[in-house]
Amino acid sequence: AQSVTQPDIHITVSEGASLELRCNYSYGATPYLFWYVQSPGQGLQLLLKYFSGDTLVQGIKGFEAEFKRSQSSFNLRKPSVHWSDAAEYFCAVGQTMEYGNKLVFGAGTILRVKS
Amino acid sequence: DVKVTQSSRYLVKRTGEKVFLECVQDMDHENMFWYRQDPGLGLRLIYFSYDVKMKEKGDIPEGYSVSREKKERFSLILESASTNQTSMYLCAIQGGLLNNNEQFFGPGTRLTVL
Asked: Do B105 and A94 touch (CB under 8 A)?
């Protein structure tokens, strides 16, 4: 069965510092991969997605992620974190079904930004 | 813009009550999903629907049922609410104008069962 591991439950970075959130997945075929962000009290917003092609994908709010098949990873990065990036981040892998795709989510990483 | 509306942001119910959570979309998306979100567990799929009157169990369907009588509306039903169903419930849609793999989420309903 598909699974997603986000090893870090909490991460704290200083404003202006670089950020990397880790995500490892387990999936037999070529995965569809997603990063979502959830600000406090809000629903989930899609940051970026990988389906095929270029392994470095760009997303909204200055985020990017790199798909590494050999490591089964899809880590999220940002070169300079802003205080407004404080939120919870979820990595997900898409599982193909007969109708549409099911998403399997990791447990999430809570990002704290200190000034 | 895609819009997903959930009937309540916050809900407090008593043990044993029947609870209805409603999700409404304003676009012609085929697939709709109900998740619950708990700290340290991420999002877990309860049920999904790929068409009117069609439903499939997700990973944690026990204690829940769903209804989809119209394409735009997908309801989650707790037949007899229990305290372990206190959680954040998120509705999502997929398909139609969205890429077939992407899911778009509503704002969530935080349910407390006393």
From this structure: no
Superfamily of domain B4-113: Immunoglobulins (2.60.40.10)
User: What are the residue ranges spanned by the domains of chain B?
Assistant: 4-113
Residue B50 has its nearest CB partner, among A43, A100, A106, at A100
Amino acid at A62: G
A13-65 pLDDT per residue, tens = 999 999 999 999 998 777 889 999 999 888 899 999 998 888 999 999 999 99
**pLDDT tens figures, B63-114:** 999 999 999 999 999 999 999 999 999 999 987 655 657 899 999 999 999 9
Domain A3-114 sits in CATH at 2.60.40.10
> Is A110 in CB contact (< 8 Å) with chain B?
no
The answer to whether A76 and A13 have CB atoms below 8 angstroms apart is no
CB within 8 Å: A99 and B103:
no
Spatial separation of the C-alpha atoms in residues A82 and A94, rounded to whole Å:
29
Farthest-apart Cα atoms in chain B, separation: 40
